[in-house]
From TrEMBL:
It comes from Streptomyces adustus. Residues 352-368 have a biased composition (Low complexity). GO terms for molecular function: isomerase activity. Belongs to the PrpF family. Its EC number is 5.3.2.8. This is 4-oxalomesaconate tautomerase. InterPro entries: OMA_tautomer-like, PrpF-like. Keywords: Isomerase. It is an enzyme of class 5 (isomerase).
Amino acid sequence: MRGGTSKGAYFLAADLPAEPAARDALLLRVMGSPDERQIDGLGGAHPLTSKVGVISPSADPRADVDYLFLQVAVDRPEVSDRQNCGNILAGVGPFAVERGLVPAGPERTSVRIRMVNSGDLATATFPTPGGRVDYTGDAEISGVPGTAAPVTIEFPPGEGPLLPTGNVRDTIGGIAVTCVDNGMPTVLVAAADLKVTGYESPRDLEEDLALADRLREIRLAAGRLMGLGDVSDTTVPKLTLLAAPRDGGAITTRTFIPVRCHPSIGVLGAASVAAGLRIEGGVGAELARLPARGDRVRIEHPTGFLDIESSLEAGPDGLPTARRTAVVRTARKIFDGTVFPRSAETGPFRSPAPCAAPASAPSPGGQR
């Protein structure tokens, strides 16, 4: 399925090995990693197209389904569960209805989702006319061609602090940063402080080796300050460079995961950026052009924009906390069938693994 501006394989948890190491070994083979082209699997040779969503019924009374996000590295034998993905999240509700985990309403369906990676909750609402998921519609999001049905995702306030370091600003290597977590640990940095404009193409920024070194230094230090420990082998926290908006939005962004520049911006990362812009004295507050009315914040990125509904309120300690966060995304079912991973060099998992396994059996002699 495509979820937002990402693409990934969605599985029922029951169709995968329960033991994490065996599960991850299988998913590496399914996606074709490690290989920069992922030529022998489903991956698309980029972190944004090498993702997995694992869905199961939830035991949490606040949720209908559990969603575990797994980032499958492209060129390394690595599967990480240390972050959420708000784009793949956009497909979780429709997938849950398709697989019978949640009954469809006659017109619209809301699915309550627990994000296993962080324990956070979200509610996805999407059209189901006649009790079936309808992926067609007129909602348009930057970075995706055409239009599709809108998926409205609302996030209740998280239990963790919006400012995980306890400070509106921190200084790392002489650079002012704001560390914010509104669903995705994110470090906000003024692009000009790193000797770039913030309007460069992702490719140009990725080729700037001096910039890569500075970003790595900031990310490692910020991870410790944010209570994430050693983040050298993870993709969080995200680093987002900020510049004044150019196309009518609130801010221009360039986001790194961790050193590759995102061609757009992740949903949860954008939620953290939007909240960060509303923090008085935070990095980016002087660059941002926030709307005079309403909660909508338009985040500009390399391929367009993403609108986030974001509002804050004062917490009991006087620090700001998120009051409301919502976003409209789209999703689409691309393929429904069975994936045949390459044979394992070792281990017992040699049989095909269902990938969004079809409700009906495959046709004889064929592969769904």
